[in-house]
Amino acid sequence: MGLKIDVLTCTACMACELACGYHRDDAFALLSSCIMPYRAKEKKNYVGLILKEEDSLVAARPEGLEINRIGEEQDPGKEADASAKPMLLREACDLCEDADDGPLCIKFCPVNAISME
Ligand code: SF4
Ligand code: SF4
């Protein structure tokens, strides 16, 4: 069981990032969040989402899903995502296991771009 992200629906509003930071720290602490939307400066209306899982970093992009196992060598010919390094240091998604009514990111996404699978 894990999170499923429909990145083509995501508007990069950051509500999930705020909710996840709150789940971690009882405050709006973006640096504690294990989910992070990002926009690409070079492409108009381009939105992606990065999710830190226990053993992988998941990048949901309009062109597809990329799962990088943490600790494995990356393709040296491929430029690393600038957002990846800070995400690696964060706690992994625990699916909000202590929340009575499920993952906060799902609850607060205004466009239902996140679901459980
Ligand atoms: S399920 Fe909880 S821990 Fe996982 S990304 Fe969403 S808010 Fe964060
Ligand atoms: S809350 Fe939903 S729309 Fe907003 S950034 Fe997260 S996934 Fe995207």
Can you walk me through this structure?
By secondary structure, the chain is an alpha+beta fold. The protein has one domain (3-109). Helices cover 18% and strands 25% of the residues. The strands form 2 sheets. It has a 4-stranded antiparallel sheet with strand order 2-3-4-5. Strands 1-6 form a two-stranded antiparallel ribbon. Strand 3 and strand 4 (56-61) form a beta hairpin. The protein is globular, with a radius of gyration of 14 Å. The model has no long low-confidence stretch (mean pLDDT 88). Residues 10-16, 37, 49, 109, 111, 113-114 line the site of one iron/sulfur cluster.
Question: How many domains, in number, for the residues?
Answer: 1
Spatial arrangement of strands, main beta sheet: 2-3-4-5
Total helices: the number is 3
Shape: globular
| Mean of all residue-level pLDDT scores | 88
Q: List the secondary-structure elements in sequence, H or E.
A: EHEEEEHHE
User: What distance separates the N and C termini?
Assistant: 6 Å
Strand content: 15-25%
Low-confidence stretches: none
* Number of E strands: 6
Structural class: alpha+beta
Major sheet: 4 strands, antiparallel
Distinct small molecules bound, one entry per kind:
iron/sulfur cluster
Helical content band: 10-25%
C-alpha-based Rg, rounded = 14 Å
Chart the SSEs and their pairings.
Elements: E1 3-5, H1 15-25, E2 35-39, E3 47-52, E4 56-61, E5 64-69, H2 84-88, H3 104-108, E6 114-116
Antiparallel strand pairs: 1-6, 2-3, 3-4, 4-5
The structure holds iron/sulfur cluster (2 copies).
